């Protein structure tokens, strides 16, 4: 039985970025290297590797998709300069946990593609395709920042829903906790906040920075800046979270008034009504402001994920099994949330001492990760007991 630190060290160098953190975008070279590593781990355990035509990779102990199988795992891809734990921890822990569960128990390990949406814009793309909530032709046409489509990166139009997901007895995803809410080594998820991404295109009139009178300008950067402040204020007022973490300007020149500013609003809240109210208020206020600035605003929802309440009985059972592990909600999205609509699903969280994530500073201690492996092994043994 090997320990956490040894296996973790095998993947730690893969995709490490100059400037800190990781660049492990879906279906790019580092992520493909991690998939090779996954195949190697499966082979060492005599597990059968399959793919589902959507970019998701599986290792099976027993027949692939056998009724009663418990599926675990997570994702390899990262946000730009993200931490190394968000995703891969759930896959490394899965292989180590499988080693600690009696050999006759049917377990699958999944590596879901494009969980972050960092390359093609829609998070949990692989699990959405697998469960049929994402149209394969829409997914095929999504493009990355270089104009490469998901279908091109995958080498095919995605296959879409695989009805065999309905044969899976339960899904358990282990993940690093991404805030400061967990003070025990391991916790159990109760819910995922509803959340989404809205692309905001602000257009105005590009012109010379030195010669255009201030009163003559139709500057979309001003409307954009006002909108960022509005989102922040409205989120604070309602206890929601709003972030604008990605922005593009055209022509993106120091000495030109931009003709276009494109920013992405990431908004999340504990309940749907609060989220809807936040987004509606931001869009309405920004549109009014655009009218005053002589600019235009078009808002396009890129992905909206409904509130997830994990199976309450399952969460309680796992908490009891894990000696009263705390049960907590999260504002982060996960493939487990998508799968929970069709399969009894639970999540285990491993303590994050600083709460920092989507950052090179993301960290969990080896001791807590080891506790996570042990917890996952207990859970898998319990859920596969016949
Ligand atoms: C993915 O990690 C997300 O919640 O943004
Ligand atoms: Mn993430
Ligand atoms: Mn993740
Ligand atoms: Mn996530």
UniProtKB/TrEMBL annotation:
Q: Which domain of life is it from?
A: Bacteria
Give this protein's Gene Ontology molecular function annotations. Answer: hydrolase activity, acting on carbon-nitrogen (but not peptide) bonds, in linear amidines; metal ion binding
- In the UniProt record, does the keyword Zinc occur? yes
Which residues does the record give as Zn(2+) 1 binding sites? 75, 86, 175
Q: Which cofactor does it need?
A: Zn(2+)
Q: Where is the signal peptide?
A: none
- Binding-site positions, Zn(2+) 2: 86, 116, 358
Question: Any idea which positions bind allantoate?
Answer: 197, 255, 268
**Protein's name according to its UniProt entry:** N-carbamoyl-L-amino-acid hydrolase
């Amino acid at each position: 039985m090997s320990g956490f630190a040894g296996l973790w060290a095998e993947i730690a160098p893969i995709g490490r970025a100059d400037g800190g953190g990781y660049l492990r975008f879906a279906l790019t070279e580092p992520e493909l290297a991690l998939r090779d590593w996954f195949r190697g781990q499966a082979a060492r355990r005599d597990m059968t590797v399959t793919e589902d035509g959507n970019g998701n990779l599986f290792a099976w102990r027993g027949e692939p998709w056998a009724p009663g199988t418990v599926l675990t795992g997570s994702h390899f891809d990262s946000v730009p300069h993200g931490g190394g734990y968000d995703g891969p921890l759930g896959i490394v822990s899965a292989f180590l946990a499988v080693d600690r569960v009696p050999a006759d128990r049917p377990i699958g390990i999944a590596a879901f593609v494009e969980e972050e949406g960092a390359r093609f814009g829609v998070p949990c793309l692989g699990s959405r395709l697998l469960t049929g909530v994402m149209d394969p032709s829409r997914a095929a046409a999504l493009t990355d920042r270089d104009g490469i489509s998901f279908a091109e990166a995958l080498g095919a139009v995605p296959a879409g829903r695989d009805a065999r997901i309905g044969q899976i007895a339960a899904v358990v995803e282990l993940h690093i906790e991404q805030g400061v809410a967990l003070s025990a080594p391991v916790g159990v998820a109760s819910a995922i906040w509803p959340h989404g991404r809205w692309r905001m295109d602000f257009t105005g009139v590009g012109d010379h920075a030195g010669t255009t009178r201030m009163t003559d300008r139709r500057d979309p950067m001003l409307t954009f800046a006002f909108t960022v402040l509005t989102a922040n204020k409205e989120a604070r007022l309602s206890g929601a979270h709003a972030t604008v973490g990605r922005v593009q300007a055209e022509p993106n020149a120091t000495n030109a008034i931009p003709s276009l500013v494109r920013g992405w609003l990431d908004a999340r809240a504990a309940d749907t009504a609060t989220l809807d109210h936040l987004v509606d208020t931001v869009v309405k206020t920004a549109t009014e402001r655009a009218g005053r600035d002589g600019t235009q605003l078009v808002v396009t929802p890129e992905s909206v994920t409904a509130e997830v309440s994990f199976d309450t009985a399952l969460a309680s059972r796992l908490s009891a099994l894990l000696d009263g592990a705390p049960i907590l909600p999260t504002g982060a999205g996960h493939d487990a949330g998508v799968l929970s609509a069709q399969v009894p699903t639970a999540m285990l969280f491993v303590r994050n001492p600083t709460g920092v994530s989507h950052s090179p500073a993301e960290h969990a201690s080896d001791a807590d990760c080891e506790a996570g492996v042990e917890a996952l092994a207990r859970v898998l043994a319990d859920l596969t007991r016949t």
